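agent: user wants the structure for NHL repeat containing protein from Solibacter usitatus. delegating to structure tool.
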Amino acid sequence: MFFNKIGVLTLAAVCSTAGLAQITLNQQPTRQIGHTLLPQPNPFNVTTVNPNLVEGREFFSPTGVAVDTSVTPPRLYVADTRNNRVLAWKDAVNFTNGKPADLVLGQRDMISTFANGPNRNTTNPLSTGFAVPSGVAVYQGDVYVADAGNNRVLRFRKPFAATDQVPDLCIGQPSFNTTTVNYPGGQLNSPTDKGLALNNGNQAFTVAITFDSQGNLWLTDAGNNRVLRYAAADISPSNKFAPTPDREIGQLDFFSKQPALPLNGVGRLTLNQLATPAAIAFDALGRLYIADADSNTPAQLSRVLVFSPPFTTGMSASRIMGIPPTQPTGGPALTDAQIYSVAMNSPSAIFFLPGTQGIGVLDSGYHRVLIFDPYDQWPDVSTATSPSAKFVVGHASGISGIKSTDTKSLFSNDGNPLPSTSTFSGPQAAVFVNNELYVADSNNNRVVVMPLQSGTFGPATRVLGQDRFNTNSINLIEGREFFFTGSAGNDSAVALDSTGDVPHLYVSDPYNNRVLGFRDVRSLKSGSAADIVIGQPDKATSVCNYPLGDINAPTQSSLCRPVGLLVDASGNLYVADSLNGRVLRFPTPFSHQGNQVADLVLGKSNFTSPPLTDATARNMYVPYGLAFAGGNGLLVSDQNLNRVLFIPYTNGGFTSADNGKAATKVFGQTDFTSSSKGSNDTGLSSPHHIAADTDGRPYVVDSGNSRVLIFDQVLNNPDKGAHAAYTLNGVGGAEGIFVNPNTGELWVTDPGGNAIRKFLRYDQLVFNPAPTVSIPADGPIAVAQDQYGDLIVGDGTNRVTFYYPALSSVNGASFQSGRALAPNAIASIFPAGTTFGKDTATAFDLPKPLPLPTVLADIQVTVNGVPAPLYAVTPGQINYVVPWSTDTGNPADVQVLRVSTGQLLAASLVAMNNVSPAIFVSRPLSQGVSLAAVINGDGVTVNDPTHPAKRGDIISIFGTGQGMVSGPPADGDIPKNGVVSANASLRVVIGTDYTDQITKLPGEENRKPFEFSGLSPNYPGMWQVNVQIPMATPPGQTPIALQLNSVGSNDPTVVGYRLVIYVQ
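agent: tool returned. relaying tokens verbatim.
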């Protein structure tokens, strides 16, 4: 066959490349865990930086809930406030626990959470998206969203029936492109009639939206201390902006703002002024109820005001709820039950039970629902200012058992760290529909549904935002996510256990109070779940010091903000349990099933000792980084005591007899009882991660001083006040560090500079302190390398990323750099500073080479996760066929893997197009000239100088990159059902012009621009073009080229040669 004669199967002489001394790592991560998808083409354009994993079934502080009863079954909408979106479910009645949402508003997809709106989210802007949506309502199937961060209310017409989610009403702004507070004035403390103040510049207010029986819209404008009404006629038209309200309650008029209510009896009983209104509701007789509280000290001013129609601007309430009775003169003191059955703390929702069953108030600050008699059954105002609740939901105490001192009956989740079917934590919204109460249980990051039972509510029967009733993590956890970005900073650590055949990865998850263990680091990908969890009973729980949630009650298996990690030669894991002020050792975690129990504690005398702040040789305050000082002992950085402790081994290691063992050396302080910050070469300021080289030198990331201090070998240092041997400056706000035990090179993370930098080993560093490599990263905080030199990074977007050796992939016919590939193109991969194993194999060595195999010599190539057919594998080159399904609109993720171990050998993004035309080279002829792979008109003879083609004959040109065809065969196979033509538009150049432009000579038969363009019947990925040589073609050496969809084939200015054929 022709192909064997000219060696096309070897694709331009498949060549082996020598291994380089240094691996060239990608400048972009190729894999990640902790997020749903790795963004492409730019993996740093993450769609969320919120804690844990976001995929459309979780919440982060939901503050609004609404049910659409205009359809059957009713639909549910939830304002997922801190994820900056509204999630919707088609069926509010029959959903299963933790069900994913069916629709999202305010974001482009289910995995995005950045604040949207005008001048926000420059990466992927959405002017009609949300920033801190804090309220939602439904009226006649249309959804109204309080977009608090953008000072506006938007309406979306029947979202489930809409093609595009574009609002047609904007209250508070003149367009979708402004966010002006109190438009048009723009002054926070100067209300206007058209504007809103739904945030104070620092935080958003909870916003209530409701409709009266006439279809008028009412909303709480909390920043202006008022409630506004918009007439139905003024808001019903489409594309309405900044409508003017016709009623205002809480202030004297639309433009004034009275002084804040005093936090005393006078303020609480003022009936014509509002503090921070948070909820509104109408009863069956049209009375208006407004929940109101002081935003700073709600326990001193919280109430519900009742207004009777007709409503007028500046009117006064007729009754008030939430004002406890006063102690009668000379009478007994009021009981807690008498006080707290009336008093409230940030009421945030109001609803009405059927018939005369009563009124419900969601009392957010006391984490409960109070049920009162209906208005007509309240005691006369002369007898009691406010009614007393008859039922309480959310606390086991009931009304009679309320105790203000029991840390239960007024506390979150009834005093427990985890919720149940009957408890709340800071609930912010509730709606009663069809004898069920839907509660946005904000601090439990869930919505629960509770059935009405005998005038009160039974335990919840359904939950969204969590998979079960006894979990409450932000954005729902299940072992696939991380929470690195907490109130104390951005913190994490990564550690590899390479002591066995399978490399394990440990990741500290500080603000989920756990360490996750992944059994095989080589097989990880986006969304991979951990195999074990340390510090929690399961992967869905995140309690500090489980089960009590008490910082003063650690156990032998609990953790509270763990950070530093370290694995010893036996596979034991050391954890810096920072807020418990200790270091724990967990013996070989992957060999233990179930609850992981520590067998060693350092920094405390025993496993149950509470935290202490004192600086002593035995005590740790906030241990952070860990490192082994050669074979001498353990180094521990203490973030708050500004020091590093050295605790020596006992006979080469630690045993349980070493619990609470004292340190013998301290770095950063002049003694064991000092803790002040220092900036000289003996001082430290908030040290973070630490490392040591194989000589035992400590490397300390002195974050507060933006430097790395390197000390002499640990045993050569004095016990106190050691001077650093070398100071590495210019590292930015460094946090993480890793010293490669094989090369001595060190990697330092610079979160502020969004980079990980490599420096020379110590003996070279002191002469050349400049970084040798800088790799981009998203706020990197932790770094490690595996045994292959691959980089593993914990970053500030709550994910772990993996940097592998780079590769290049080019068209296998032209080897033209910068040319995008296409589906079904034959391509070649070359490594950067590494090799693809040691073996060589070709598909045609196999008994049945077709369809082409997807594994050769234990090597597999994947393109966007799809195994690619392979022609040949050598240590320095792989020839493969791009799968038909490859997306042509984005760069493709091309990876080379060792199948037996799952090791990722190399990876890079490769440009893709719909075509990638190139002609194969038969052989070079001279400098800058190569012979094209062409068969003459007889169908057998290879075109060359001694076998020229005849003018007028139909020759066959062989290339690749024709792009999509109609009815393609399977990947790696040849057509099975006859001729398969290419779809792209083709022009052929022979000589100096296109064949469709070359003049036809007298007597020459009519000829087509080309006879055939399509798939080769013999070789997968091969493109065959049959074309007639024009009679006007000059004899001799003649240039030849193809143009497909205006894209030319082998470009001489790039490949360094021009292609020719010979014509006689």
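agent: one observation worth passing along. The longest strand covers residues 1036-1044.
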